[in-house]
Amino acid sequence: MSDRPNRRAFAARPGDPEQWIRSADTAPRDGKRSGFTARLTIDITPELRGRIKIAAFQRGVTVADMLRDLLEREFPNDEGDSS
């Protein structure tokens, strides 16, 4: 009987969350950089999460793309805004 490889480390939480967050600043393995270098985590109710997922599905977009667009609209990059 052959042994199965231990894949637990792939999905394991990082031992040092700060290092894991800073690792977003390093280039990905394929050498391509995405425009997104930070992760935002928020706590929401399961009901709200469900409504967000349904809305994204109905619009034919991912939840991440829909929320990025929402945040861009709500917090535009105003060059002249000093606040």
TrEMBL record:
Source species, domain of life: Bacteria
A GO biological-process term: regulation of DNA-templated transcription
Spans annotated as Disordered: 1-33
InterPro entries, A to Z: Arc_rbn_hlx_hlx, RHH_dom-containing, Ribbon_hlx_hlx
Pfam families assigned: RHH_10 (PF23807)
Name this protein carries in UniProt: Plasmid segregation centromere-binding protein ParG
Organism name: Nitratireductor aquibiodomus RA22
